[in-house]
Amino acid sequence: MAAKMELAPLRPWDDFCPGMDRFAKPDFGDLTKWNNRVISNLMYYQTNYFAAALVVFLIVGFLNPFGMFLGGAVVALVFGGSVWAGENKATVKNFKRKNPALFVIGVMATSYFVLSLCGGVMVFIFGITFPLLLILIHASLRLRNMKNRLENKIEGVGLKRTPMSVIMDLLDQQEELYE
């Protein structure tokens, strides 16, 4: 039976950005462990990440509303098309599963190309790419704690369904694949 969708709680600031002792450089030699850390943090801090991205979207949207709408529409269409292709084309699905970072970079590069034709590159860079970069940096550097791991296990067995778990499913990225 499918679990109903629920929003993960907003994590307190002292948990989201504690002292420097809870941040560490990822092990670039072990991509599986690094990917596991990123997925785990994306799942645990998802509401904080959505809130931070929303703040940047609102600021850029206030400065250039049409460009932000155009950029968001293009990225949504390209992402939707890539997810559709991943579900219906075996080669795309295999590529997406084996190279998740390259897949996301491909979606962003395609979005950038389409937006460059429309003249919305700066809005794309500051309104869409910059928040994603900040989220990736935080998720890569933030060390996990026991509460983080427990919450992710609950979502992993399907007892809880959140917006980030839906996005991870669309990208074929589940934490249990990397443990």
TrEMBL record:
One GO CC annotation: endoplasmic reticulum membrane
Q: Mind telling me which Pfam families this protein's record contains?
A: PRA1
State where the protein is found: Cell membrane; Cytoplasm, Cytoskeleton; Endoplasmic reticulum membrane; Membrane
Q: How does it sit in the membrane?
A: Multi-pass membrane protein
Q: What is its main location?
A: membrane
GO biological process, any: negative regulation of transport
Q: Which residues cross the membrane?
A: 42-63, 69-87, 99-115, 121-141
Keyword Isomerase (UniProt): no
Q: Give the record's keywords alphabetically.
A: Acetylation, Cell membrane, Cytoplasm, Cytoskeleton, Endoplasmic reticulum, Membrane, Transmembrane, Transmembrane helix
Taxonomically, the superkingdom here is Eukaryota
UniProt record similarity statement: Belongs to the PRA1 family.
Q: What is this protein called?
A: PRA1 family protein
